[in-house]
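pasting for ref
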Amino acid sequence: MSQREDLLIELGCEELPARLLNQQAQLLATGLGQRLEEAGLIDSADAATILATPRRLAVRFTDVLERQPDRELERKGPAEKVAFDEQGQPTRAAEGFARSVGKRVDELERIENEQGRWLYARVLETGKSLAELLPEMLEQTVRDMAGARSMRWSDRRERFLRPVRWLVVLHGSEVIELSAFGLVADRRSRGHRIHAPGEQAIATAGDYEASLEKAYVLADPRRRAERIAEQVRALGQAQGLQVELDEDLVEENAGLTEWPVAVIGHFDPDFLEVPEEALISSMQQHQKCFALRGKDGRLSDRFVAVANIESRVPEAMTAGFERVIRPRLADARFFWDQDRKLSLEQRRDRLDDILFQEKLGSVGDKAARLEQLAVQLAKVLGADQAHTRMAARLCKCDLVTEMVGEFPELQGIMGKHYALADGLDPAVAEAIESHYRPRHAGDDLPEDGPGQALALADRLDTLVGIFAAGKKPKGGKDPFALRRAGLGVIRILEHTLLNLDLRTLIKAAVDVLSKQINTKEEVIAEVEEFLTERLRSHAGEAGLATNTIHAVAAGKRSSVADFMTRARAIEAFTQDERAESLIGANKRAQNLLRQADDDTIGAVESNLLQEDAEKMLFEQLSKVEGDVSHALDQSDYPQALGQLATLKQPVDQFFDKVMVMCEDADLRANRLALLKRFSGLIADIADLARLGR
């Protein structure tokens, strides 16, 4: 049995981009893991430990075989009638097959199937060693990892994210002979650039992290992230401050350091006159620092920075961070002071100079469309129309400010601050900010009426406009983020309970846009299907079953909120013990109705009811129809479904006792009319036949 040991591969690099570190490490682990598994050297590609720092990408696999196990292969050759001539002598086909499997023709076996008899051989394939297979595996993996940001260096033909300067490959305690990037693999890694410069010998693959930790390198990015979070919290708590512990910022700092050490610094409290979002963005974007807040929740004049060194004079290191953060905050204050010299209204004409999309005109044109569409939606939402109109007019004006030019993520947020500085109504300022929500999946939704109207108008205008311009998403390409915009529309519509269906909303956007671009009916259909798909996706993420979603989608056209209400009611109804029978009956009724000519099915004539079972169903239908109709008018779907569930017994007896497709045409038509009346009660809620019961 081949020996199993841990396999370690480390690519020592020049400084890797922090934001790409985990992604590249994962690609290395996945590529090698899949190839090792396919070769039968490991049991599962998931058995990998990903290790990465700014100066290295490493992966360790547990229980990797030293050699592939031998395999017995079954090889099928030519048909027997082709393998031998009329005298029974082997043909060139038989001899060629025998040579390919390393046997004589008389040693070949026969196999028989429906097509005839064939030559056959069992061949023992000797497994290859890990040392033989690994060089090509690594080469293929590195080739797959190459992307737009990969580079070549020296005279090397390989491409990689950064130049590779050392290579470690260990199987247990043994170095695997392997060459790549012009380097020969050995056991010599590198320690921390300052604390432990130079080579660090790795005894075994399992000793990797412990050996590097002695050299002031935490190889596990998760441990570095945990250490950073713990240190930042501890420093903040020691000062009685609350920490803005942004997970992405923690991860980025982990990607920038090998031996993270957090320190707390201070800046001039005069900077706090600048909106806190601008200060936080400046600290995070430029210096990768964590903001701190006082007990009152206000931004503090202290921050936490993460160094990649354990200084003997921490005060000097802290002073260094304070020295470099000061000009960044000064820039933010300069932008704030400069931007306020012009009001948002005075900046509006400059929006005409920014192209939104070639066929859709400028951002100024878009803002003009938003004024019209947002006010229409405000009427339906019951939002203040004057506030909505003003917010729509100014909502994009902060795009031409210095602050948003430097920090694009502050669009809308700075618009709110500038609106307040201009003396505008707080409701207008709030809408300017909130209309960008949700900015990403899981983000908060706008809670103010003008903001909701404007958020919907903005996304609908973009969706309809880009589709009309022929730029709809294709595959993984979505340059205008239409999928995110579509999901935002769905979430806002559900949240606001807006009682308009998707087609009505799309047509409203089309009417406003039609003055600039010709929109066809097919565009409305495309956008409706696009948003409907987003609705299905949203419902699935909300935990609703796929069959439920399809069943409700096949029902009446309605608002998003109504769709979700019906779907949840149907989902709950399927747990009712009476549901399965009712669903089956509805499906059977629909099948019978499809077989008939619908035009010949009229109203139920009570005098043609002969069987007790059909009389009972007619009587029960007459009793519940009013209650079901009233419940549907109130969108009380649980109540409506509860009433329908009372039909279980009469419906079951009807199908047990009554021959629907009888020879008498009048009786057949009347019984079909009874089924149509029953099925019609359910149709507006959902197509229960799609529930697959």
